[in-house]
């Protein structure tokens, strides 16, 4: 959770402490930064239009901020989470001071996408005046992946998507939920295959996913699951389709 500090340093910025000494651009150091020195940044960056494709559900700070949502997942203690949160709040203030023109009228703390990639969204929005956009929409609508997803959904009777873990975070910009929303807009049923089904997984139903099927049928360690991925996904898909056939037979 460095708030995009590393990216800005890579582009020529320097992070200075109260004594004018340079500080490494890592999350735990943000609270010590007193000034962002921007004179080393290439002036041509001002004339570049930057589009950042990220998760718009990720915010820089607050209850849904990156430190509180992702910190515990990465092993941060409650005390470390609060320290990271305070550092990011301070960092947003420094960004607004260092880049007043780009940061003007931008909500760096809780604006959509500001917390993408550990706060990279906020750093680039302020430092480069970047426009933050949904990564999924950018990829699909720009046709960068070579797949016309909407056309394929329109031709399908059933949409099957997948994710390593389906839980309360899945509706917050994860690919299966975005697929589900597009499929639901087209009136298509959706099944998600999941390596694990975690807390709050029922939230995906409101995102357009009708049912979730676990891929792992029995307890196994990660290396085994990875080595058997093709087999496990195939078996889970067959189980899901057999349930559909059973439902159709009951309804007939």
UniProtKB/TrEMBL annotation:
Belongs to the glycerate kinase type-1 family. It is an enzyme of class 2 (transferase). Its EC number is 2.7.1.31. GO terms for molecular function: glycerate kinase activity. GO terms for biological process: organic acid phosphorylation. This is Glycerate kinase. It comes from the Bacteria. It holds the Pfam family Gly_kinase. InterPro entries: Glyc_kinase_flavodox-like_fold, Glycerate_kinase, Glycerate_kinase_RE-like, Glycerate_kinase_sf. The keyword Aminoacyl-tRNA synthetase does not apply. NCBIfam families: glycerate kinase. Keywords: Kinase, Transferase.
């Amino acid at each position: 959770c460095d708030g995009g500090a590393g990216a800005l340093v890579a582009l020529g910025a320097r992070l200075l402490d109260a004594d004018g000494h340079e500080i490494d651009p890592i999350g735990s150091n943000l609270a010590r930064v007193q000034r962002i020195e921007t004179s080393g940044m290439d002036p041509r960056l001002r004339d570049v239009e930057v589009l950042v494709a990220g998760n718009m559900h990720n915010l820089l700070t607050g209850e849904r901020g990156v430190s509180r949502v992702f910190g515990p997942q990465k092993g941060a203690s409650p005390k470390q989470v609060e320290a990271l949160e305070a550092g990011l709040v301070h960092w947003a203030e420094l960004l607004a001071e260092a880049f007043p023109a780009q940061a003007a009228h931008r909500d760096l703390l809780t604006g959509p996408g500001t917390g993408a990639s550990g706060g990279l969204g906020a750093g680039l929005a302020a430092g480069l005046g970047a426009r933050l956009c949904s990564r999924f929409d950018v990829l699909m609508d720009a046709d960068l992946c070579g797949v016309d997803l909407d056309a394929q959904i329109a031709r399908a009777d059933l949409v099957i998507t997948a994710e390593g873990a389906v839980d309360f975070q899945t509706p917050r910009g994860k690919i299966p939920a975005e697929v589900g929303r597009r499929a639901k807009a087209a009136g298509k049923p959706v099944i998600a295959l999941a390596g694990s089904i975690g807390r709050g997984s029922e939230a995906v139903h409101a995102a357009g996913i009708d049912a979730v099927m676990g891929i792992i049928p029995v307890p196994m360690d990660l290396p085994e699951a990875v080595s058997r991925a093709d087999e496990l996904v195939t078996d889970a898909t067959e189980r899901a389709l057999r349930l559909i056939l059973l439902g159709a037979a009951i309804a007939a």
